[in-house]
Each structure stands twice: as C-alpha cells, then as structure tokens.
Amino acid sequence: MASHSDTLVVFFGATAGANGGKLGSDEREIILLVWQIVDLHEKKVGKLHRCVVKPDALELTDQCSEDTGLTVDDLAEAEPLDKVLQQFQQSVSSEVKCLGRSSFTLCVDSPHVIRQALHPEASKKNLVLPECFFSFVDVKKEFHKCCPDASSVPKRTLASMLEYVGLPAVSEESMGEMEVSSMVQLTLHLLAEPHNHKFTCVETVKYKFDSGTCNKMEPVDSETVIRARGLPWQSSDQDIARFFKGLSIAKGGVALCLNAQGRRNGEALVRFINSEHRDLALERHKHHMGSRYIEVYKATGEEFLKIAGGTSNEVAQFLSKENQVIIRMRGLPFTATPQDVLSFLGPESPVTDDAEGLLFVKYPDGRPTGDAFVLFSCEEYAQNALKRHKQILGKRYIELFRSTAAEVQQVLNRYMSAPLISTLPPSPIMPVPVLASPPYLPAASSSRDCVRLRGLPYTAGIEDILEFMGEHTVDIKPHGVHMVLNQQGRPSGDAFIQMKSPDKSFMVAQKCHKKTMKDRYVEVFQCSTEEMSIVLMGGTLNRSGLSPPPCKLPCLSPPTAYAAFPTPPSMLSEAALYQPPLLAAPRPHQTVAHSPAHALAYYPPQPHMYMNMNMNYTAYYPSPPVSPSTVGYFAAPPGSVAAAVAAQSHPAAGAASSGLPQHGALVRMQGLPYNTGVKDILSFFQGYQYAPDEYSGMVQMSEQARSLIQPKEWLCL
Questions:
Q1: pTM higher than 0.90, yes or no?
Q2: Contacts for 1 with CB less than 8 Å, ≥ 6 apart
Q3: SS3 for 379?
C-alpha cells in the first residue's frame, strides 16, 4: 500500500501555459484540477471530479485552450486556487470516509504537477497547502518497479504503458479526464493478478530548508548543483529555498556567493538531493523572485565546495546548535568585545548562550576584520536585532542582515586562508640589484593565460575589477592584476590579468567581454604573458597585431619594499624602478662594503609609505618615448620621484657627454611651466641631495636654456 494508506487519489493538474513534460516551466498558473479515488483493498473506483481554477491573470495560450477546451469566460466564473483546494480536501475526506477508509495518498503521472506547479504557485500566493500535497507516488516509477522489463517502452507515456500491459488507450474524454482515467486503469491492472503490486515508493516534499555546514572532504556530485544569478542582495538561504519550493535541497545546500569586498554578489550555489531535482530546478530558469527574474545554470561540485566547504572546528561548533537564526554584523570597531556587541543588541535581542553565540571573524594572525555572526533562538529576537541596522557602536555604524550557515563558512574561508595577493613584501636583509628578477614581474611566455581589459573607467580600482570578474576572481594568479598607467602616472583604461591557465583566461574572455563597469562596457581579450609584457613596456596590442615598444627600456613598478640597482660606468641604460606617490625622502646613497665599484640606493620598507595596505596589483608605467642616444634618463611621473645614483664617471664618458657634468644622475623633467625658475626646481626636489658643482651646472644650463632650448629639454642635477 502507499505508505500504509487505504486509498489512492489519482490526481492531475493543468496550467494556463505549457503542460505535459513542460508543466510549470513558464510560471503559468493552475487552471484545472481533476481527481478520482481508487480503493486499494476493494479495487473500486470513486467518482471522477473536475474543477476549473480561476488564475490571477485571465490568459490562456492557444495550445492550452485547444487541449483543455477552456475559455477565458470559463476561468472568470471559477473559484480561485485556495477555494478549490479546500473543496478538494473536503470532497476527498468525505469520500474516503464513506468508503470506510482512513487515509489516502496522491498518485500522479509525473512529479511536475506537485513540485513544479502546485507548490511554487502556493508559495508565491502565501497559501498553506493541505498535508496531503507533501507526499505522493508516481505511477510511472511504480510501473517501472513492477515491470522492470518495460524499460524499452518509448518515453514511458500513459498510452505506451497501457499498450505494454495490453489495455486499450483512453481517447474519448477531454484533457485531464483522459489522463486520470488512464492512470486509474493502469493502477487497477498493477494491483490485480499476477502483479499484486504494492505502491510503496512514496516521494515527499520538504516543509522547510535545513541549514548546515559542508566539509571540504565531502564528495559532491556535480549533477546535483546549480548556480542561481540575479538574486536580491538581501536574500537569505530560506528565500532561495522558497524560490525552489517543491524541490528537495540537501542539508546546508545553499551557498551565497560573495564578491571581492565580502558582500553578496547576487549569486548562489544550490545543491539538491539528486540529479532529478537538479534537472527540475534548471527548468525554473528566469522564473521570478518578487520583481526580479533569476537565472539558473548548471554548476559543479568543485565550485560548491569552494564556496561552502570548510574544515574549521570553530565554525562547526558555532553552528552545532539546531534551529538558530543567524545574523551577520559588519563594520564592527576592531576593539569591540563580546560584551560591547551584547550591549549593542540589547535585552530585547538575547543572543543564544550569550558570548558563545557570537563568532568574531579574524585574519590568520588574529587581527579582527570587523565582521561577526550572531545566533538567535527565534525569529522574534532576530527581527529585534535587525531593527538596529546602521545604528552606532563606538564611532561606527553597524550593518546587520540575515545570514546562512554556508555564508559563515565562506567568510571564515575567505579571511582565514592565505590572501590572494600579499599586502606587503617582506623586508630585505640586504639591498638586491634590480637586474635580478623582480618579485612581481611576470616571466614572458607564449602561453595565452592572460586577459587584457580595455576601456576601464578611469576611476576604476582593483576592487571594481575583481567585482567585474565575479566568480573568476578565484582563478587569478597571485600578484596577477596589473593596472597600466600612462606617462603621466594616471590610469590608461587598460589592465592585464594573469589567470591560472589558458582555459581560465579563455572563459573570462568569453563571459566578461563587453560587460559593463560603471556604465561603460569593457572589452576583454585573451593574450599571452609575452604580449602583456610588451604592452607594459610601451608597445601596442590590438586586433591588427602586435607592435613592439618604441624602446627597450623596461620600466618596472611598485609596490616593493625596496629598490636597488647598480649604475653602469658610462650611462644609465637599465630599468627605473618607480616609487609610490607617497614615498618619503630616500636615504642618501651608500656604498656597499663588498662591492665598492657600485653605488646602491634603496628605500627602507616603511608601511606608512603605501597609500593602500591592501594593494594587490602591480602598476606598470609604459616606457617614455625614445631618449637621446648620448644620455640615459628616468621619466618622472607627477606625484612620484625617480631617484637614481650614478657610479664614478668613466673618463671616456666625459668626452662623449659634451660638457655635461659626469657625476650624479640625469633627470629629465617634462611639462614644466614656462616661467619655471631654478628656485622652483630646487623646491620641487627639496629633501634630495645634490653637489655644489651640480647646482652650478643646473644654473649654467638654465641660463643657456633661456636662449637656446625650451624648458622641456635636459636638466642636470
């Protein structure tokens, strides 16, 4: 028998749109319900019932109107769904009682009518469905179980199943009545000799979503995971479970995705109990959550584990309490204590187990992040806490919003794992020559594992780029985001991203090309590390081909904790390592004891020198135009100073320099105001050392410049 039931209620439903195998895929409302009772003991059949349902939108597709024979006038005169369901409950209960039976179970020809039509519509209309709609048997699955040799039956339709058992097809009745009559005949045949089948494969619909955690070592079948996009940012796991009402989500199977700033990005990964439910979920592509339509795509188990998987015992212990409402707090002062948080929430929002119901999120070194999660034992307490959204604690306003167990795990994973890009390079034990491989300079390669972003807003920062790349951020190599600046040190609108593999860069180029960032669409092209390096050195890369840089002077970039380089005897022809705009005055150059022939200058690793301690990119300044062949120079972008130290002059170099001073470094200054004087230049370089004869040379050069050259030409310091 069907879960110890005495009777089966053979049930059928139709919507105002697609029916059959596509039932519920277009979000159309139910307009027709048909049912008939089968007594499992006496093998008797009750009366056939047919009820028309009035939808909110009085519309019918042509195909539906033709199949059901219904018109808009028929729908307008009918009762709404809640009234029809009450009539159904009363009619079935009365009839079952008249038969002398005590219980019944629904029997359908596919789960669509229950899972894809009835439950989603009831959820949207806030209807409480009778308990009988939370369990059912599928006549097709029962037929397959009873007749395992019938696997060859094409598509396993009602007509083909009847034909297989030797019963005539029902064809003279209208839609709904025909399907119910066919199921009744098939059911009676399976109950009779020689089958004597028992309907025991009862499927259930979950009343609520069960939150929980997922271990990274737990195997996750990729055929059970989907990605939902376009979610409202305040959506909780329960909201997502409600969107997929009727389908069974695995425990803790909703993982909200976060962007680079730790905020929700409108996406979630959802894990179902089996592939059948995943396939039904995919049919809800572009269904609506409120006024927003939600995109639903396939995803992998690996993606789900990256978001929801964890190994933290602290999180497992925190989430071990059952039936708790989780609230996330963001923006806490770094000095906030558990008592401060409890006082902020107040007595009307008691936290479960007081301080044990608080989980502060910290960096691996123990520093607070400003985030915390709070457990409440009931919805009322959580609502009271949410009323304190954006109220002040200390000198900061605090954001509060609903959270999930998977989000707790994800936030802990984000902060407790090694950062994508280290915030500051380690301090050097001794100065290292710049000719050695710089720590952030990518090695040239023909492998197309990079992408170029072109057309970025000039105000775009690294956070904007990471948010623009979305889910692909996890595939970026360490130190792999390179902003390209122009000769003036300003953003050029270009950036290069190093991905972990050519496949990853191809996917980024395919999915992100011409996506918008701050009302501008951004072009995304796949390229190689070699092409990226050439462009960063001043070359060009476009669809017509690759143009080499105008000169071979590679200009390296900040931020490094030091910059050290030897100076060739005759002239400076190697790279210039620029310093950040907020760089303090450099130390005077010193001579290293073990290498007296080379003078080394470096900047001490002082954290206050960096504008952004979380800077996770390398900014390359393209090389300036080709310089005069007799002089090496550094281009100094506004806001930064290119410092270089020259070694002792070589005698032959003096003759070649045509009267230019032979000790010190040459600096070219472009864009000087035409009324600039020597005092203005000395003020600009205040804090840097220069020799008296260098000053004389500058004065002499300045006097000559008044009559011979423009102020943009060479000046010697």
A1: no
A2: 40, 198, 199, 200
A3: helix
